[in-house]
Amino acid sequence: MGLGTLLGAIAVGLLVAVAVAVAQALLGNALPDRAVTLLDRILLILMMIELLYAVQNERAFQGAMLELGLLTVMIVALVVSLVILRNRPPHGVAELA
Asked: What confidence tens digit (pLDDT) does each residue in 58-68 have?
């Protein structure tokens, strides 16, 4: 069993798990509450597919690792900015006048 087969099996398993989670969220009217979690799982599946492609083409592996590193930095920056904005006290135009 090669690395490509293992990554493919993991991606298929995650895809099934996301499909079940989406169905449960739709049936329970909880899609807005669980949207971030579902998008996170879909992003994980896309990353697994990209790794699967990169494993098949050794030359693309280094480029894929660079892209995944950059994507990780972008996600961390987004999370940090959301935490900073959430902790910031709200102020509007009416309060400044």
From this structure: 766 777 778 88
Positive or negative torsion for Cα 35, 41, 45, 50: positive
Other CB atoms within 10 A of residue 60 CB: 14
Two tokens, residue 90: 């709200």
Residue 2: is its pLDDT beyond 60? yes
Helices assigned H by DSSP within the chain = 3-27, 31-56, 58-87, 93-96
First to last CA, the chain: 68
| Chain centroid, CA 39 distance in Å | 6
Q: Are 31 and 83 in contact (CB under 8 A)?
A: no
Separation CA 97–CA 36 (nearest Å): 36
Encoded tokens for 12: 């298929």
| Domain ranges within the chain, ordered by starting residue | 3-96
